[in-house]
Specification:
- With 407 residues, this protein is of the alpha+beta class.
- Helices cover 41% and strands 17% of the residues.
- The protein contains eleven helices and 14 strands.
- The longest helix is centred in the middle third of the chain and has 35 residues.
């Protein structure tokens, strides 16, 4: 399994200029590749292959006066930019044919030097290395200072240098994890839980635990509003406007980092404590079109579930997603009677059949776990129960007429 590990970089002034030059050269090569393929499409000719583009846009371009500055950066950076353009077109055509899951993708667009995020990638043949002093030595850039927050679990295959909208630099390493080592780090468990995600509480577990929603964006709204107002008053193109833009970007980055850290800590705890986890697949895109859009985006359910998914795969846990149309809030988790939908203002209800008083979210979490069919035996390995014939007197088996019962 491949993972990415990101670390903060602190390049000096000269290294920042060299990185800016590398970002610009990679962007120019990418744009030239897009324009070359667009010209071929308009002329009714077949798309040029990546080998032909490499010769024309990199090797031959370096010998011209207009593109001679391409030789001032690592050739690997330029080659990887061409591969990025190739991947973008491949994903676009796969999306057109319906072979790629997810929303439809548009054709690759030209990049701008004003884009919020810029990046370059170095593969192993670029001869980058980590020095004995802990710095990241990049070709034609130099040894950049790195803030190592943890030890790399394996030798990285490549490194991507990223500059975000807040002006921060990061090094993202691609590593291959060892399944045996990951299994040793995370011993087996004999617990299984269901999770109900919401807005009143970020998550309610089938054990009854309620995890409050930090609401990072809501708490930072006053500061963000003030910074955005200052930005709107600055003259376009001025240095003061750029300073104000960075202030807004850093405020948003702080909110994003806090939310990601919360998701990581919670997902790691749930994965380490439970062998099986059940969660409901929510329609986040649909909920984001309602009046609750800001709160839905602030919660970040999709990012949290994605973390649960890859961590479960990495550490040998079982993650089951139940359908979004499962009536988890309408079914009594004790007797199985469907009591119908209730408005969101109703947080507790009493079952009309068995008289059990239910907390709305806890009841939903129990139903999520039951719908997933999680059962964890003493050995700790997750097992889904075998299907059995429903008994006639079994609770929840409704819809039979008297004639069918007699039969």
């Amino acid at each position: 399994m491949q993972l990415r590990c990101s670390f903060r970089l602190y390049p000096d002034a000269g290294q920042q200029r060299a990185l800016a030059k590398a970002f610009g050269c990679a962007r120019v090569v990418f744009n030239d590749a897009v324009l070359a393929r667009e010209d071929a499409r308009k002329a009714g000719q077949p798309f040029p292959r990546i080998g032909e583009l490499s010769t024309r846009l990199i090797t031959q371009a370096k010998r011209t006066v207009e593109r001679s500055w391409l030789g001032e950066v690592s050739a690997v950076v330029l080659q990887q930019s061409l591969r990025d353009a190739e991947t973008a077109y491949r994903n676009f055509f796969a999306s057109l044919k319906g072979a790629r899951k997810g929303p439809k993708l548009g054709a690759p667009r030209l990049k701008s030097r004003k884009d919020a995020r810029q990046s370059i990638r170095f593969t192993a043949n670029a001869r980058w290395k980590i020095t004995s002093s802990g710095r990241l030595d990049l070709p034609k850039i130099g040894a950049v200072k790195v803030k190592w927050s943890r030890t790399l679990p394996a030798t990285p295959a490549s490194v991507t240098v990223i500059k975000d909208s807040a002006g921060r630099f990061f090094a993202s390493f691609v590593i291959d994890t060892d399944p045996a080592a990951d299994a040793a780090r995370m011993p087996g468990s004999d617990h299984a839980i269901g999770i109900d995600l919401g807005l009143t509480h970020f998550a309610v577990l089938s054990t009854g635990e309620k995890i409050d929603s930090p609401r990072f964006l809501r708490r930072a709204e006053k500061k963000l509003k003030k910074a955005q107002k200052e930005l709107s008053r600055k003259q376009k193109g001025s240095k003061n406007r750029e300073k104000a833009r960075l202030k807004v970007a850093r405020a948003h980055a702080k909110v994003t980092d806090a939310r990601r850290e919360f998701h990581h800590q919670l997902s790691t705890r749930l994965i380490s404590e439970n062998q099986g986890i059940a969660v409901e697949s929510l329609s986040v895109a649909g909920l984001a079109r309602t009046r609750l859009a800001k709160s839905v985006h602030d919660a970040g359910w999709t990012a949290f579930v994605n973390m649960l998914e890859y961590k479960a795969q990495r550490y040998g846990r079982t993650l089951i997603k139940i359908g979004r149309y499962e009536p988890t809030s309408q079914v009594c988790s004790t007797c199985g009677v469907v009591d119908g939908p209730k408005p969101l203002s109703v947080r507790e209800r009493t079952c009309t059949a068995c008289g059990t008083l239910h907390d709305r979210d806890h009841n939903a979490a129990l139903n999520v776990k039951q719908a997933a069919g999680l059962a964890v035996p003493a050995c700790g390995a997750p097992v889904r129960p075998e299907p059995v014939l429903a008994q006639r007197a079994e609770t929840g088996s409704h819809g039979f007429s008297t004639k069918n019962r007699a039969a």
